Amino acid sequence: MLPTRVPGAQLLLISRSLSDWVPGTRAEVSLRSSVAIGLDLAPSPRAERLAPRVVQPAPQPLCVAKSEFRRVVVDSVRYTGAVSHPSYQWIRSSAELAELEPAAAAAEWIALDTESNSMFVYRERVCLIQLSLAGTLYLIDPFLLDAGTDGLAPLAAAIANPEQPLYLHGGEYDVACLKRDYGLQFGGLFDTQQAASLVGLERTGYARLVEAFCDVSLPKGHTHYNWGKRPIDDKAIRYALDDVVYLPTVVTALQAVVADADLTDEVRVACEIVSAAPAHQPGYDPGRVWRLKGISSLGKGQLAVATALHRLRDELAAKADQPPARMIANPVIVNLARQAPTEADQLARCGLRGKPAARYGDRILAAIVEARANPPEVPERPIRPKKLPDVRDREDVLKNWRRGEAEQRGVSIQAVLPTRAIEQLAASPDQALEDIPWLGPARIARYGDTLRSLVAAS
Question: Taking a C-beta distance cutoff of 8 angstroms, is the pair 179, 274 a contact?
Answer without folding.
Answer: no
